[in-house]
């Protein structure tokens, strides 16, 4: 019996993009359902009753929530192609550490960059660039975070590249000017079809955020 895979998602979500990339890396066919987050579907509320958030992966009727947990699930279930986590326990732990670092930092700091002003925004910009600097240090001279092959940390981080023009335009700074190695890594990831076809264009995300700012009353 063929696997039945459904992804409940919202197109600009960097967390949902992680699952799209992981499924593309594995060559898994799935049904994509874009959620209206102001009017969540009964399927989403039933599949993730605790957090009521996207993304949710539904595999043969069983739901898996939280993006990094779902990416690990995808890696374990479809393990015959494009392993995302290394086999060595220590390297695997390191990959989980850095993916967790991305989770704890990028979204919240980035959100502050485009929703705040003045000193609060300046502090957010400084923290955002410090975060990029730390990640760039971990990347070092490797092509990808895990070494020679695209892996778990890359999947966790690359979706935030789609939001970069949002952070840069509202924050009035350039990541490439200060962290060219980070941008070179992002462009390397985008050369992969599993990435380029799974994430939206930066301009599309920027236009979405412009509308969001209007709704939030941010001028």
TrEMBL record:
<dbReference type="GO" id="GO:0004364">
    <property type="term" value="F:glutathione transferase activity"/>
</dbReference>
<keyword id="KW-0963">Cytoplasm</keyword>
<feature type="domain" description="GST C-terminal">
    <location>
        <begin position="88"/>
        <end position="208"/>
    </location>
</feature>
<dbReference type="GO" id="GO:0006749">
    <property type="term" value="P:glutathione metabolic process"/>
</dbReference>
<comment type="function">
    <text>Is involved in the conjugation of reduced glutathione to a wide number of exogenous and endogenous hydrophobic electrophiles.</text>
</comment>
<dbReference type="Pfam" id="PF13410">
    <property type="entry name" value="GST_C_2"/>
</dbReference>
<dbReference type="GO" id="GO:0005829">
    <property type="term" value="C:cytosol"/>
</dbReference>
<dbReference type="Pfam" id="PF02798">
    <property type="entry name" value="GST_N"/>
</dbReference>
<dbReference type="InterPro" id="IPR004045">
    <property type="entry name" value="Glutathione_S-Trfase_N"/>
</dbReference>
<dbReference type="InterPro" id="IPR040079">
    <property type="entry name" value="Glutathione_S-Trfase"/>
</dbReference>
<feature type="domain" description="GST N-terminal">
    <location>
        <begin position="3"/>
        <end position="82"/>
    </location>
</feature>
<dbReference type="InterPro" id="IPR010987">
    <property type="entry name" value="Glutathione-S-Trfase_C-like"/>
</dbReference>
<keyword id="KW-0808">Transferase</keyword>
<comment type="similarity">
    <text>Belongs to the GST superfamily.</text>
</comment>
<protein>
    <recommendedName>
        <fullName>Glutathione S-transferase</fullName>
        <ecNumber>2.5.1.18</ecNumber>
    </recommendedName>
</protein>
<dbReference type="InterPro" id="IPR036249">
    <property type="entry name" value="Thioredoxin-like_sf"/>
</dbReference>
<dbReference type="InterPro" id="IPR045074">
    <property type="entry name" value="GST_C_Tau"/>
</dbReference>
<dbReference type="InterPro" id="IPR045073">
    <property type="entry name" value="Omega/Tau-like"/>
</dbReference>
<dbReference type="InterPro" id="IPR036282">
    <property type="entry name" value="Glutathione-S-Trfase_C_sf"/>
</dbReference>
């Amino acid at each position: 019996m063929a696997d039945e895979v459904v992804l409940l998602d919202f197109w600009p979500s960097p967390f949902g993009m992680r699952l799209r990339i992981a499924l593309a890396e594995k060559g898994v066919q799935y049904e994509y359902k874009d959620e209206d987050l102001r009017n969540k579907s009964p399927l989403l509320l039933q599949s993730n009753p605790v957090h009521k958030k996207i993304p949710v992966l539904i595999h043969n009727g069983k739901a898996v929530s939280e993006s990094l947990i779902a990416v690990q699930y995808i890696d374990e279930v479809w393990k015959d192609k494009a392993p995302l986590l290394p086999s060595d326990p220590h390297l695997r732990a390191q990959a989980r550490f850095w993916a967790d670092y991305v989770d704890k930092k990028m979204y919240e700091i980035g959100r502050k960059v485009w929703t705040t002003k003045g000193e609060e925004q300046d502090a957010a910009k400084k923290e955002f660039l410090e975060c990029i600097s730390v990640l760039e240090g971990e990347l070092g001279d490797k092509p990808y975070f895990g070494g020679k092959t695209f892996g778990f940390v890359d999947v966790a981080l690359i979706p935030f590249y789609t939001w970069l023009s949002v952070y840069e335009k509202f924050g009035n700074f350039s990541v490439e000017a200060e962290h060219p190695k980070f941008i070179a890594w992002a462009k390397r990831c985008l050369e992969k079809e599993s990435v380029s076809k799974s994430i939206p264009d930066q301009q599309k995300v920027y236009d979405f955020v412009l509308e969001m700012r209007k709704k939030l009353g941010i001028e």
